[in-house]
Amino acid sequence: MARVLLLAAGGLARETASSILATGDHHVVGMLDDSASMWGSEISGVAVLGGIELAAQRSELLLVCAGPGRARARIVRRLAALGVGLGRYATHVSGTASIGSNASVWPGSIILPGCVLTCDVSVGKHAVLMPRVVLTHDNAVGDYATLAAGVALGGNTVIGSTAYVGMNASVRQGLTVGEGATLGMGAVLLVDQPANSVWAGNPARALGGHDHTKITASPRLKEAH
User: Fold this and answer.
1) Rounded to whole angstroms, what are the CA distances from 34 to 75, 97, 114, 123?
2) Over the chain (225 residues), what is each successive 10-residue block's mean pLDDT?
């Protein structure tokens, strides 16, 4: 059982610690957070040992638990500048998740209880799947992407790096949610969503009321690992 530190002592860290305890795949030895007021305290029974850069001085495996994907990316870049490479990052898959054939989950990613990955699915580095996310055949989830609880993706969909898909949102088969995009809670996506855009609704469209129903399909994103 590997020893692991959780970086960023917020809600995702608490959920991850709980899932790890139930699964028994790692032993959480502490959390690290940049808020000095938290140092020496306990979060859900786990000690906050110091700042995030302390990770470079320790030997445990790491899981970055900042909620937003861009925040996770910033932490990873900070630690990379201190010599922390990909090999230092753990992967957590809840024992109640269903992982099908030919699924790949890259280092740093967190898959919480009740998720389903059917087959031929790729989850990139430092991605987070919240409870009950459903990925179907040939889905590709990019690095640092976040899929909130209850998200469902049709087959052959691509979620770009640092994208956020809100709770209970659905994406039709064959579509792309672009890099850095946000798809709102309960949205139903029926056409490709451009990078760095914010869409919501059923059918989903850009906030502000502009009609995007005639957008043509964008090229499929290719995640390099």
Assistant:
1) 10, 31, 31, 27
2) 96 98 98 97 96 98 98 98 98 98 97 98 98 98 98 98 98 98 98 98 84 39 39
